[in-house]
Amino acid sequence: MPLIVRRIGICGLLNISSRVTRPTLSSVPIFCSSRWPAFAPRCYSKPIDHYSAEKDIIVKLLYNIGSRKEVEQYLRHFSSVESQKFAVIKIGGAVLTDELETLASALTFLNRVGLYPIVLHGAGPQLNQLLANVGVEPRYEEGIRITDHITLEMARKIFLSENLKLVDALERHGTRARPIPSGVFVAEYLDKQKYGYVGRITAVNKEVIESSIRAGALPILASLAETVDGQILNVNADVAAAELAIALEPLKIVFLNEKNGLYHGITGEKIDVINLDEEYEDLLKEPWVKYGTRLKIKQCKELLDGLPRSSSVAIISAGHLHKELFTDSGAGTLIRRGHKLFKYNNLDEMNLDKLRRILETEDRKVKSGHISVASYLRELQQKPKMTLYTDEPGQVLAIVVSDPANPSNPPVLEKLLATKTAVLNNVPDNLWNMIRKDYPTLTWLVHAQDIDGNLDGAWHFERSDGSLRRQQDGSTMFFYGIQDSDKVQHTLNEFGKQRSPPFDYQQRRA
């Protein structure tokens, strides 16, 4: 029977593939022949089929930063909710000064695929400069800007100016935008005697935002609030973004900064993901987690605890916004509640009802009636050694089996199941990291119907050192951690001799 070695490399058989270098948004052309969004109402003058064609072009451009599967699944995910629940994007004042055109391009890109992020900006650096020009030194108490009459007057002037600057930039890029510097946040005095004209938000007027989106325009908000009797108050932009998120419960809360994320205080490396349910307590004990980093993590924890588990916070630069939203790898720092992962060494330790639910909903062989859950569990109990991995709500399941009597045979990943929600929240990736810590070597099998013609095959290749496809049934064996060339050859030969796949593997990503 002919065998096809798919990748060549360290042992003469392996080759580690890498993703194609992806362009940043600044290097991707934006097609803005019309100033109207892709999903504009029919009353606009340009024909609706042109909008569809323009959207198709932009979607194809997105494929340059991620796989077709990634892009399409996130587009479906983002489009599945009401427009105002897609994303709240908070923009720091420095971004408006240093990255205005990049920001406008990024927001235009989102709008061209029919998405309507709600944009909220601050203007701290600009306000400080304006105050310095008139000889007023900014004062802070417990991190809160003390706002007197002069500061409030300057704040109102600069917020309006920066708001219009962003709107104008978006309009130049062909994206309709509506300036909303006030009228969204209702507030009361935080402590008038201590902080002056600083507000504590008590309500959010969603109708102003919804009206803008219904008109086909991006709502551009400033962090100013009013009391019920009309007094303007200054509010912290991060706090205003959090209150906006609580009121709207969006899928994404994005904080744009020039640093492109949070960084480890010792190694200096960017932190890709923080799973709060697993890491929060230990993270706060780290000596380098202090000042602004500590405050940001605590604020995100407080915010996400009250939102649906599907919501997450991204800290990212304007130029990488598209990659953070539309690829699994992301680009900045993603903060989410995540799911606590659990490991069991036998079936008696695990909740069998949870195990049954995910097998019935996600396992192809069980769903097709090829095998019952009870039959599979009985087979599983006959294995010499096994390790089961799952999360708290039961949205992922992995089962690794091994034979201590034959240590030369690498462990086998017998099952890996994941719900759509788990995949969108990257729970399988967290589980995979846990498996790799426990098993330095591993093999797993993917059936033809799960990988042939399916771009999800990249997921397996990225996590393996090598693979072998069997022409007989189209199934593919993957492996990692096998360094000895003789063991690699033995593993591949054993797989080639098998007449039918003994193990079932399924990774559902959409």
List keywords for this structure.
510 residues; alpha/beta; Carbamate kinase; Aminopeptidase; 2 domains; 8-stranded mixed beta sheet; 20 helices; 22 strands; 19% strand; elongated; disordered N terminus
Number of domains: 2
Q: Any idea what the shape is? A: elongated
Helical stretch count? Answer: 20
User: Helix fraction?
Assistant: 25-40%
Task: Give the strand order, joined by hyphens, for the main sheet.
Answer: 1-21-22-20-19-18-17-16
* CATH classification class of the largest domain: Alpha Beta
Per CATH, the architecture of the largest domain is 3-Layer(aba) Sandwich
User: What is the fold-level CATH name, i.e. the topology of the largest domain?
Assistant: Carbamate kinase
β content, as a range? Answer: 15-25%
Summarize the structure.
By secondary structure, this protein is α/β, with parallel strands linked by helices. Strands 1-21-22-20-19-18-17-16 form an eight-stranded mixed beta sheet. It has an eight-stranded mixed beta sheet with strand order 6-9-3-2-12-14-15-13, sandwiched between helices.
Question: How would you characterize the overall build of this protein?
Answer:
Helix 5 packs across helix 6. The chain is 39% helix and 19% strand. The strands form four sheets. Strands 1-21-22-20-19-18-17-16 form an eight-stranded mixed beta sheet. Strands 6-9-3-2-12-14-15-13 form an eight-stranded mixed beta sheet, sandwiched between helices. The two termini are 34 Å apart. The chain is built from 20 helices and 22 strands. The chain is an alpha/beta fold and 510 residues long.
